[in-house]
Structures are given as C-alpha cells and as structure tokens.
Amino acid sequence: MRVPRHIGIIPDGNRRWAVNNNLSKEMGYEHGVNPGLEVFKLCQKEGVNEITFYGYTVDNTKRPSNQKIAFIKACVDSVMLLTKKDCEILVVGNTAANNFPPELIPFTKERKVFGKGGIKVNFLIHYGWSWDLNLNKEYSYNNTTQLELKSKDISRIDLIIRWGGRRRLSGFLPIQCVYSDFYVVDSMWPDFKSQDFYNALDWYDKQDVTLGG
C-alpha cells in the first residue's frame, strides 16, 4: 500500500454528535480528544511522517462562550497528551489574539521533540487562512515585498481526511493542500473507528497522484 507522507485531519461533527447523544453541544469536544490520540497511533504504526490536526479557527471563536472554552480546552488537552509520546510537535496559530491559549505559546516558537521524536505532529490553533497568508498587508507587484507564509514549517499534504460528512476545506492550510486528495467520513469525529482511517488509506492507494504532471 502507498502510504501518504503527510495526512491532514479535519475532526468535524463534535456538536452534532453531542446533540445526537442528548448532550449539550459543548460536551462533544471532550469526546474528540481520544480519537485524535488513536489517529496519531495509527499514523505512527503505518509510517506516516507528518500529521496535521485542525484544532479551531478564528471564525470558530464566534461560537457561544461555553463552546469556545470547551474546544480550546480540548485542543490544549490534545497537545499535552502527545507530549507523553514519541513525536515532534508544532502549534501554528495567531498567538497575538486573546483566544489563543497561553500554555501553547512555547509550542509555536519551534518544533519541540518529545521522547524519541519521529513523527511530526502539527496543530492549527486559532488559525486563519488569511492570517497565514498575511493578507492584512498590502503587497506590491515589483517583488520588493515577499509573502511570508506563517505555516511555512508545515509540508505539503498528501491526504486530507474529514469526519462529519461535510465536503469542504473550511480554510484548512490552502497552500499545503494545493494537490491534496480529499477523503470524507460521514460519521462524526467522536465516533471514530480505526476502520475509518484504513478505508481512507485504501482509497488513497487507488488514486492517480500526478501532482499536475
């Protein structure tokens, strides 16, 4: 099987899962932490070199405060959980914003190695695609000003897997995803099963990857 070098994970459906299970919406996020750990273990087992988790976006912070508190906590818990594993962690997001968790700032300065290192794990925390592309500045066409990608330390993504049935990128790393294959899992993220992951790998193995060539 041809294993993707870099997999992007969009873990959607936490709130819908909570409602379907007679829980308040914010309670869905804590149930999304363990699936992230399971995906990490599977990527590690199958020899994936890099994995990027979509934590939350600038737009997500428009949600009710109880939901915002819950998904920020889930993201922090997820990062901290992986500090006990063999991996190299990088967090990418707008640290200048009030909604960025201060305990994750050290992970944004450089990729931190834990245990024996190995698989690279990226978390997008309070991420915005326009912030990433630095579009708040004006750029001239005479090459005197260069675009600096905030996520420049994240490599091109081969396969994106999105849970929750939605068929959209939602602003997920637009530069790195330029040639990504996109696989959708209809079940919600908290209902993650390892077969979801292997179904995605099987599907990817059958794709004609040409990178435009």
Topology:
Layout: E1 6-11, H1 14-20, H2 33-46, E2 50-57, H3 65-82, E3 87-92, H4 106-109, E4 112-114, E5 120-127, H5 129-132, E6 159-163, E7 181-185, H6 194-205
Parallel strand pairs: 1-2, 1-6, 2-5, 3-5, 6-7
Antiparallel strand pairs: 3-4
Question: Descriptors for this entry?
Answer:
alpha/beta; Undecaprenyl pyrophosphate synthetase; single chain; 213 residues; 7-stranded mixed sheet; globular
What this model shows, in words?
This protein is an alpha/beta fold and 213 residues long. The protein has a single domain (6-205), classed as Decaprenyl diphosphate synthase-like (Undecaprenyl pyrophosphate synthetase), CATH 3.40.1180. The chain contains 6 helices and 7 strands, in the order βααβαβαββαββα. Helix 2 runs parallel beside helix 3.
